[in-house]
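Below is how a single chain appears once it has passed through the pipeline. First comes the sequence as given, then the structure the pipeline wrote out for it. We keep one example in the README because the format questions we get most often are answered faster by looking than by reading.
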Amino acid sequence: MIVPDLRFGFAPLPDVFPGYDPAGDARALVPVGYASPALAPVPGRLLRGSLGPGQRFFVRIPDAWNGNLVVCGTPATRSEHANDLTFGEWFLARGYAFASSNKGIPYNAIVEPWDRTPDPAHAYRVPFAFGESAPGETAIRFGALDPVAVPVAGWHADLPEVVRATRDVVHETTGRGPTRTYAVGLSIGGGQVRALLEREPDLVDGGLEWASVYWHPEHNILRDLPPFLAAMAPYLESGFTDRDAHEAIVAAGYPPDRLRDAPRLRSLWDAYYSGLPPFYADLTTFAFARLLDPKAGALDSLAARAAYRPSAAASENVAAFAHSGRIEKPLIGFAGDADVFVTPHHNFEAYVRAVCAAGCGDRYWPTLVAGGTHVDGFAALGWNLQPMLPYVWRGFETLVAIVEDGARPPGAGSITRVR
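Resulting structure:
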């Protein structure tokens, strides 16, 4: 399809349906007041494809194509358009072909009354007030679980297949393949990038990952979240003054809480617990336990999820797609020191150690950003947070200099801290 302007808000998007809101997915990841770095129209071609039932991907190729391709991993269980604002606008404005997929997950999530959800065993019953609904009255149904489970191992397998498919699409459309191919990703999408550079590095020339999940059989987000849930209950009940609860969460590997002077949503921790839908910490515990642990049990209450500990079967399932740290191409990494969801201690610092232990530290440039948190949308809420996108965009320029110009910037194999 020839499109007069490939930018977000101008290029056509697929129709919205329950659980699937491509524009909403993109807006959720940037701060209020986000200004697009693509200041002028970007004419070009938009092509869509599928690699199987429920799987969707697209490629945007500017008329002023620079000959290179960027393929994105996708955060959480969001749509193929979740990266349009964080990454797409910046790359299109610089002439890159830009591609992304939905990892085979047909929709993100459907919010509906609990008494109307079709399969309560696979729906998350929200234990907190949600809009006008009382605790327990709202269900969230996941596209990763319904109508059939989309295994997490398949998410890692999706990115290399999308790279192959989009390189073919670019070749068929332009008459030549990309000169360089890069992989980038945020959160779960960053974990996809890590896995790609470990397992199929010949598909790309380099990668960039941001706030990425680190999958290890004994150290992963499914193990991190229940202790957080357990200590948050007394911490919230105390009005965020219970020092024992605070110290228990910090001891579990979390950055210290940040409090702000506000009538509601005082605690950054609580923003991920009970303060803001979709209540990421609790919801994610439920979803990943359902996806990874056949022995998890019902987990049908907040207390059950706080007491949950992954079984040996969950560890075996994670081992099938776990990260090794054996990256074979240059990788730029970013995390925020105020990420209280995918914590830097367990997901960033631990991965740096894994890369160095694998003898690959000379290929990895990790940066920890002061005041950065999991997604930039939280930066507008206060807590002395700052957006990480400007650092990420500059990091990609560093990656290009490494790959295309042979640059060797300082900091490989050790964490650089910036403010």
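The mean pLDDT is 97.

See the next section for the split statistics.
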